[in-house]
Amino acid sequence: MTYRSPLEMPAEEFPFDVLPEHLALLRRARTTWDGSEGVGGGAPGLDRWAPFGSLDVYSDIAAIVDGRTDGTHDPAEENRYDRLFVELTLTLEIVLQTGRFEPGRYVRPPIGAWQPAPDSR
Fold it and tell me: How far apart are CA 45 and CA 93, in angstroms?
């Protein structure tokens, strides 16, 4: 089966590599309450309009992961930036379930939480 993104793939079918870039993005992420007011009416999440501080998400990602200081980005990098951004969902889940804010390979058994891959401890 072909998957368009790691979010479509059952977790037990693949390991996931948390990259330093994922962690750098999470460190700069802006959070917000997504949904209705109060408990049970939403959940915390990333600011959907300015997840890293400005409305120019690509330029923010370029500054965070590539060290660009000119406020722009290389359009040739947009696919890479899109993938890193989408993968933040898995990265955040891994960080929360393992209590580790460390790059490396992680796996999730069919039943249970993410854990460091046996060869990456």
Answer: 12
pLDDT tens digits, one per residue of 56-80: 999 999 999 999 999 999 999 999 9
Name the pTM for this structure.
0.83
Question: pLDDT per residue over 88-97, tens digit each?
Answer: 999 999 999 9
As a whole number of angstroms, the distance between CA 57 and CA 53 comes to: 8
Q: Which residues contact 13 (CB under 8 A, 6 or more apart)?
A: none
Cα–Cα dist 67/23, whole Å: 14
Kindly give, in sequence order, each residue whose CB lies less than 8 Å from that of residue 35, ignoring residues fewer than 6 positions away: 41, 42, 43
Cα–Cα distance for residue pair 96/72, rounded to 1 Å? 32
CA–CA separation, 43 and 72 (whole Å): 32
DSSP secondary structure code for residue 30 in this structure: P
